[in-house]
Amino acid sequence: MGYMSAHPALLQIRSVSKHFGSLHVTNDLSLDVFAGEALGILGPNGAGKTTLFNLITGDLFPNLGQIVFKDQDITRSSAHIRCQLGIGRSYQIALPFEGMTVFENLLVGAKFGAQDKSDQVAHERCVQILDRTGLLRIANRLAGSLTLLDRKRLELARALATNPELILLDEIAGGLTEHEALELVEVVNQIKKDGVTIIWIEHVVHALMAVATRLVVINFGEILAQGEPKAVMESPDVKRVYLGLEI
What we know:
Blueprint: E1 9-20, E2 23-34, E3 38-42, H1 49-57, E4 64-69, E5 72-73, H2 79-85, E6 87-89, H3 102-113, H4 119-132, H5 148-161, E7 166-170, H6 178-193, E8 197-201, H7 205-209, E9 214-219, E10 222-227, H8 229-233, H9 236-241
Parallel strand pairs: 3-8, 3-9, 6-7, 7-8
Antiparallel strand pairs: 1-2, 1-4, 4-5, 9-10
């Protein structure tokens, strides 16, 4: 199932393969991500979703294929170069600088990711993001003392502090209550409204469906289905592979 958009491709993944010895995690995978969209990624455990994120951010390099961001080949670019180009990322397990305050955690992203030369610009960016993500009230609290929800918020806020054009979210709703997940969805939807392109891996399907403009389902490192979210979830192949239903 292909997909076309009227918007330009911000990120192009071209025939990318990654293997670890005989284990092939992604296999000749191609995907375009378009400016301004919110792309949701689903797939069973071990499907290759997080490996795909690691290939996009530079934590891993592909064995074959090419990755292009804003018409620039970044296939072999380091993670920090990709961050400075405009790719931000949150991680499934939030690992903030626990001995630093919430505000200081964001300041690291603003100074070294977004490369704000001015301290005033960096401070202003961080305050705006803290307000947007609901963390302003605890800006001076040590990150190591936060609840799970606030740690998830901080993980998102730190990624935003790098001033990304493309943000990758890795299961940020995992472990949250339904009410907490809805709060997080509101924040992600606001990010989308601000024009940031989103790729979101998530097992909490109702949260993903509340944000995504397109879904991609990955299985064994290959794209099983992609397109309008409701249509994808109703696909017999997706129900069989992801939901475990016999159709």
